[in-house]
């Protein structure tokens, strides 16, 4: 998966800005609050709201959405454990 897509005809459901916000945020914290991320300007302005965008990023395995016992999403973490280190390395490179 590439954050910056060179093929502009792809059917991605997220923008590079949204993916980069997650990478930067998860590089400095082990998890993010689901609702706080949905209320951020970057995700709030998504067509259909931020939830479809987060679900698409979860399907791409960039993130994992953690749900409570009742099934309600409450936090977001890297899709795979190794991604946390990769996110830190990416943000240190900027």
Topology overview:
Blueprint: H1 16-28, E1 32-33, H2 34-38, H3 41-44, H4 50-59, E2 63-67, E3 73-78, H5 81-92
Antiparallel strand pairs: 1-3, 2-3
Mean pLDDT: 89
Strand tally is 3
- Distance, first to last CA: 20 Å
Portion of residues in beta strands equals: 5-15%
Biggest β-sheet description: 3 strands, antiparallel
Order of helices and strands: HEHHHEEH
Spatial ordering of strands, largest sheet: 1-3-2
Number of continuous helical runs: 5
* Rounded Rg: 13 Å
How is this structure best described in words?
The chain is of the alpha+beta class and 94 residues long. It is built from 5 helices and 3 strands, in the order αβαααββα. Strand 2 (63-67) and strand 3 (73-78) form a beta hairpin. Helix 1 (16-28) crosses helix 5 (81-92). The longest helix has 13 residues, at 16-28. The model has no long low-confidence stretch (mean pLDDT 89).
Descriptive tags:
three-stranded antiparallel beta sheet, 94 residues, globular, alpha+beta, 14% strand
Task: Describe, in short, the structure shown.
The protein contains five helices and three strands; from the N terminus they run αβαααββα. By secondary structure, the protein is of the alpha+beta class.
